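Structure tokens please, single chain.
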Amino acid sequence: MKRHSQLLWIGLFIYALSFFLASAGPFDASKPLRGYFCASVTLLFSWEEAKLWVHGAPSINNPLEYISVLVSGWINAIFLVALLGTSLRPSSSSFTLARIMLILVIPFCWLVFYYQQLYPREGHFLWIVGMFMVLFSNNAPLTRPGKLLTIGGPKAISIET
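Here you go.
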């Protein structure tokens, strides 16, 4: 089994495991929130809010909080679609796009934690690690093939493949 394949499966295992661990905890030391609960609540919130908005709901009090919850709710769906898309049609550009999107949307979870007075727990960090392991597991070269490392200036020493 190739190294990138091992990283992919280990990353998927960690990603799946994170849903059963505590992902967030309230500051008042009450019961922690599991990953599956956080994922389903934020996703359902986005559906319910969309229905209310279509039917003329009142304006949003805090747009940043609202957008943070909406984006957080869709992270898992976007990740799974990106995973499916890159496995059906692997290319360097699709992995790059998925990586950039993931890096840009993770901070929205932290805004939700802030506004809901929660703190991240082990499940949240494993969730991030699992997604990054999956998205960075491909074997697409990040540099030009044939020249992996160049050290120095005009008389550079390079390590060829």
